[in-house]
Amino acid sequence: MTPVFPRNDSRLLPSRQRVILAGIRSSRAPFSEVDEHLEELSLLTETAGGTVVGTFVQERSRRDPATVVGKGKVGEIAQASEALKAGLVIFDEDLSPAQARNLERALDIPVLDRAGLILDIFAVRARSREAKVQVELAQLRYLLPRLTRRWTHLERQAGGIGVRGVGETQLETDRRLIQKRIAHLVSDLRQIERERSQRRKRRKETIQVALVGYTNAGKSTLLNALTGAGAPVEDRLFVTLDPLVRQGHEAWSRFLFIDTVGFIRKLPPQLVASFRSTLEESREADVLLHVVDVSHPSFEEQMKTTRQVLEEMALNQKPILTVFNKVDRLGSSIDREHAEHLAPEAVFLSASTGEALEDLRRRLEESVAEETVLGRGVLSPSAGSVIARIHALADVMGSRMEDGKLVIRYRAHRKDAAFLERLIRESGGS
Ligand SMILES: Nc1nc2c(ncn2[C@@H]2O[C@H](COP(=O)(O)OP(=O)(O)OP(=O)(O)O)[C@@H](O)[C@H]2O)c(=O)[nH]1
Ligand SMILES: [Mg+2]
Q1: Does 349 share its domain with 254?
Q2: In what order do the strands lie in the sheet with 405-413?
Q3: Pocket around ligand 1 at a 6 A CB cut-off
Q4: Fewest CB atoms within 10 A around its CB: which of 40, 50, 113, 249?
Q5: Distance 358 CA to ligand 1 centre (A)
Q6: Taking the CA atoms of the chain, what radius of gyration do you get in angstroms?
Q7: Which of 361, 327, 174, 360 is nearest to 253 (CA)?
Q8: Number of domains composing the chain
Q9: Is 90 exceeded by the pLDDT of residue 222?
Q10: Which atom of ligand 1 is nearest to the CA of 291?
């Protein structure tokens, strides 16, 4: 079946698209907050291959239901976009399909919101089959309710940010076809998930550690420092889309590290849903390392965002260890105190200079020790399958024969220990 949105990697824009950014500031919010949000939106725009030529912020406590910003502001943006030869307006706020339509009609150029922009970046950067399927699925679910007048614009603008891949062959606007494609992708993804879960065999001696956190926090840099893997690292958003699993090197060889896709404010829910299977890798982890760029002015908000996504994915039940990364860039001790206050248990380190990596190892060992328990089983020597399971799931500390029974001492994860105890009882042991 031909994808509705055919993908290839040669979709770079002929020249950088000129973009205007727009946001609103509620009267209670501090100026710095809206500045940082628009700064991030501008980074996202550049990642997508656009050049920001103008920025508009309107202060209002209530969004205009039809156009988010007021009529006057829409007029200003329209004038500016003509004067600045902009080809796209990107709103920091979520736009309903109707709002996007109204704005496009008034501005006469395509309009995108933050979610649409993030989806576009993912679409261009996806490399693995899994990531591609996940992104296409998210994009179709996002676009489906927006398939209206907007598409005539999209056709004209084919190849621009937000519609990458859409216009290369015939643009398909048939909803039923898109729905069919969605169903197809969903079943593809299930198949990939099945394959993945078969591959994912628990290894008893290794402790699985997933690196999670805001995009650009330094997760891949930390993975490289601990494993020697050459994972791509860049001062850009969403460099990593596919999970990478690597065994720790040298003193870290007990651990298996999993690099994951980064989070961002207003991550489109369609993407979160699609990337569930990628994040399944984190579900298997014994510990989550929440990597935070503590030198970032908005690190507190970034931490909140990450925690929210983890909660949405029901991953917040795992032991989470906070890592304040990039301490080499941390200016004042006030920032450090503030961070300590937010996560008193956290480790401060620098993934790029290697500073304080030892602290992290100590803390990881501790948190793992808290998660494992000592067990003792008294079994009939003929209970071969149970004995084999103990060896497979636990670290056996010692075993000896006593009155014709085999006594085994082991250390296992809590959940495995409970399972083993049950097996032992069921086999008539104690
Ligand atoms: N100064 C400093 N820079 C760092 C440190 N760790 C990472 N960086 C830089 O931060 C940027 C982002 O690092 P990545 O490792 O790609 O971040 P990431 O969390 O994997 O980002 P995504 O994959 O895009 O979500 C790169 O430019 C790194 O060189 C650190 O400890 N100190
Ligand atoms: Mg990365």
Answers
A1: yes
A2: 372-379, 405-413, 395-402
A3: 215-221, 233-235, 237-240, 262, 325-326, 328-329, 350-352
A4: 249
A5: 19
A6: 26
A7: 361
A8: 3
A9: yes
A10: 19
